[in-house]
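Q: What would this chain look like folded?
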Amino acid sequence: MRKIGLTGGIGSGKSYVADLWQQWGATVVDTDQIAHQLTAPNGAAIASIRQQFGDEMITESGAMDRKRMRDLVFHDASQRIRLQNILHPMIRDFTFREVEQAQGCYVVVVVPLLIESGSWASYVDRVCVVDCDEDTQIARVMQRSGLTPAQIRRIMDTQATRQQRLAVADDVIVNDAQTSLEQLKEQAQQLHNQWCKPV
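A: My prediction, written as structure tokens:
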């Protein structure tokens, strides 16, 4: 089964595109959702996070304190690497298992840090980038999350640049401020039709 790696910066709209493909019959494996499961109450990563970062990074409900952890890792790259060393091997294992069980004519692996990680690009058959300009990213993330532009910029600074993503893309979906919902769906539909053809 064809494996599509889907990536894009924060606020690019990759989750919306992945949802469309899922509605049309593809299997979607989202590494962000897996990370949420791992760091939810009693998640598989909680014991290691508590051991590495202390009780103050765990909420009363037993989940990772996302806000506190985000403040820490986006100010200190060494702490971000410590967290990634816990989560990334677990995310990879969960993803591989879900991909093996995938149904449909192709499987989409949503990886926000596909370019940065280095190894995901060789795991998938094609890399699809949802692309938009930085001002649009910031406006969208502010609208949905309440983060400040400075906080969003710090997150974006840890991600690959737009140019780096486009340099490795096999397929590109443009989703900037000028793109209508219909145009976005049309681009997604064209790729869906293409990927459903026999390899």
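Residues 32-103 form one domain.
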